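User: Hey, my collaborator sent me this sequence without any context and asked if I could get a structure. I don't really work with proteins. Can you help?
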Amino acid sequence: MLARLVLIGAAVAQLAASGDESTLLRIREHMLERAIAGKNKPLLLALTGKGFNADFQANFDDYFLYRESLKREEWIHRLLHLHLDSYEIVVLKIQIPKPDQAAVVVDEYWGIHSPRGTRIQKRFHTSDAWHKSDGVWKLDLRLSVESEPGTK
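Assistant: No problem. I've predicted the 3D structure and written it out in structure-token form, which is a compact way to encode the shape of the chain:
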């Protein structure tokens, strides 16, 4: 009986801890959203790990598929120089397979314009890999694939 209570208590504690971590990760994703939308380089640096890598795939017309892999500094540099009108993250799923590792699936909605003023709406389905070090979640990897255009 006592062993059973200990197991139940441990399971409840694990669920509570996981819920807290999920909340922290959701907050980190929304901090990332604000950092990208506001082109906040110090916050982008604080949220990403030194080994951060971003891979993305986008369609620019029916015939052209664009793929690229960027390291942390180049990714931030590109974000800072992007003609961004709007940016939003919608968190879809959070998984925490280990206490120091997490995967967060989001949809990203980008509103950008070309230097000539043409407005473009892009939607990406993105998987973020987070790693917890010294009690802080850092973004290590971001895999983004353009979704079909659509609304939320």
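In plain terms: The first helix runs from residue 2 to 37. You can pass these tokens on to your collaborator as they are.
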